[in-house]
Amino acid sequence: MATLRRLREVPRHLLVCEKSNFGHDKSRHRHLVETHYYNYRVSFLIPECGILSKELKDLVMEFGPYYCVKDLPLYELITHEFINTFVKKGSCYALTYNTNIDEDNTVALLPNGKLILSLDKDTYEETGLQGRPSQYSGRKTMRFSAEGSMMMSYFSGYGIQEHQPKIALSTTPDLRCPVLRSGLLGGEPEAACSTRELFDWLGAVFSHAGLNNEPYNFVSTYCCPQPSAVAAQASLCTITGFILPERICVLLERLCRYFDEPKLAPWVTLSVQGFADSPVSWRESEHGFQKGGEHLYNFVIFNNQDYWLQMAVGANDDCPP
After folding, report:
1. Among 255, 256, 262, 284, which is least packed, fewest CB within 10 Å?
2. Which phi and psi (to 5°) does residue 92 adopt?
C-alpha cells in the first residue's frame, strides 16, 4: 500500500508564464537567457516551413564545441593561471559530469567566477575562487564550455576531449498546431488555446508522440488542443550538448527577425532545457532533482514581436525569476 501511495503522489511542478514584447524597454528576455547558465538542449519549431534558411543552418552549426576533462583535480579551478586565462575573460562555464545532484558531490563554475559546491544532498554552498583547500582536494570529470576557448591546449596534460553538439533536423507534414493569440495568455474558448495547453502540446511534439488520440495507440492518447489549424509542414531543429547562453541569445535574436519578411507562420517557438544535474537553475537559485530535475524555458515568438515566456522547474526548486 505504501508503494501504491507513492506512485499516486504527483511531484510538485511550477510553470510561470508571462507576456511581453521584444521592443519594450523593460522586456526581460535577454536577462532570463543570460542567467540560465547550464543548457543541454535547445529546440526551435517553425510551422509552415519545410527547409530552414541558410542563415539559420549556419548559425546552428556554430554552436560548438564543448569539452570534457577526465579526473580533473578541483584545485585546478582556483589556480591563478586558470582564473586569468578563462574566468576573468568571462563566458567560462564548468559542471561536473555523470553526477546525481541529490546523491553525489557536484561542482559548478559560474561565469561570474563563483563556484557552487553541492557536497551532498543536504549541503549547498556558494563561494568565490578561494576557500579551504579541503574543498578542492578531490577529482571530478568536468564539462567545460567557453567562448574563444583554449581548453584543449590548457588541459593537454589531462584526458581532455572536444565534443561537437548533436544536431537533429526534421520536417513534419500536416502538423496540427494550436491556434494562439498573443494577447490571450490564458486562451479563450473556441478562439485561442492557452499558454499551458501550448506547453503540453510542445512536450508531445518534441517527444515525437502521436497527436491524433487514435484508439490503437497504446503509447499516447494525447491530441492537439482546440482550436487548432493544420500546418502543411513544420521544421524542428534540436541541438544537444553544453550550450552557452550567449549563443542562445544570438539564436533568439535571429528568430525574432524571422518575421521581418511576410511568413505564413503566425508564431515560432524556442525551447531550452537545463542539465538535470546542475546545482543551480537561474543565477544562483538552488536546483535539485528528487523526482524530475527539470528546469527549462520556452519562448513563443509572434509575428508582431510579442512573446510568451514560459519557465518551469521541478519538485525542489524555488519559483523561477
Report:
1. 262
2. -115, 125
Q: How many CB atoms lie within 10 A of CB 71?
A: 11
Write the DSSP string, 68-114. Answer: EEEEEEGGGGGSHHHHHHTGGGS-EEEEESS--TTTS-EEEE-TTS-
The span from the CA of 56 to the CA of 300, in Å, is: 17
Looking at residue 118, the DSSP 8-state letter turns out to be E
Helix (H, G, I), strand (E, B) or coil at 319: coil
Residue 119 grid coordinates: 557536497
Spatial CA neighbour of 253 closest among 236, 268, 273: 268
- What residue type is assigned to position 293 of the chain? G
Q: Are 30 and 249 in contact (CB under 8 A)?
A: yes
What residues are paired with 127 via a beta bridge? 115
Confidence of residue 301 (pLDDT cuts 50, 70, 90): very high
Helices (H), the chain: 2-8, 29-34, 54-61, 80-85, 151-154, 195-206, 245-256
Q: How confident is the model at residue 131 (pLDDT cuts 50, 70, 90)?
A: very low
Q: Decide if 104 contacts 52 (C-beta within 8 A).
A: no
Q: Please, which residues bridge with residue 93 across strands?
A: 145
Residue type (1 letter), 153: S
The four Cα atoms 244, 48, 232, 181 give a dihedral, to 10 degrees, of 100
Number of helices (H) and strands (E), helices first, in the chain? 7, 14
- Reported pTM: 0.89
